[in-house]
Amino acid sequence: MLTELPPLNSLRAFEAAARLQSMTLASKELHVTHGAVSKQIRVLEDYLGFALFVRLHKKVSLTDEAKRYLPHVQAALQTLSSATSDLRRQPSKPQTLAINVLPSLTINWLIPRMEQFKSRHPHLYVDLSIGDFAVDFSQGRYDIAIRSCTAIPKGANYIKLMDEDLCLVCAPSLAPKLQNIEDINHVTLLKHTTRPELWEYWAEKVGLTLTQVQTFGVEHFYMLSQAAASGMGAALIPRFFIEEQLANGSLVIPFDAPFTSPYRYYLLTPKSPSLPLKAQAFIDWLLEVFAPYRH
Fold this sequence. Notes:
The protein is an alpha/beta fold.
């Protein structure tokens, strides 16, 4: 029996205000008054026994408890919306789920885990493609996309998957030349060509002046990891991309200098009040698999 269910209207008001960080914007989206949103949030706060927002001048900020609660509320509301939408549509043909994902994320991380998703949802045909272009859902080509960027994406609904935590790595053969941070200036720097500023960000973070001008550029993190493993130089790569290479020793961390880049990973879906159940199934699974990397 479901005995701990808070009022649905209060959850909707909380989710909208938390996502938009504004009671006013939430009231416009829900087509109710500002006072109605505030009242519903107070009802929820009374039910839970703690505050959800810190009220500022023109916007609101989430409390720590609200930050933990929000993803679960969003997932529950989306599941309910998707299930209702699917029942109303009652599709008569097999379901195809079209997903477009960053190349390196697809090759290094997603594909090795997709069998788990397929075993849970054998009725779905997954059409997985790669890309790092701006996604236009109005073309109807994709149900879901995953992108990394430094600002919140526009023109789509989004869920932040994680920050981008980078580690400095190299081949075991190069590690003896990298005993400390200053030694970076004596080896080739392998650069991600679409993010050429990462080394400068890292150097500023660790307090190093870069003087090494010998570089080698590649376009994707997958290529970057292969170049580093071959001994071509040192690279900054998201740890979750190279877990297997770190485990088997083809890449090593010569010294600990972690760095969180300005980039974030987002799951994007069309701007719609509801998603098809096939998309929600993938989102639920992906959030579960990404859980160890989120903070």
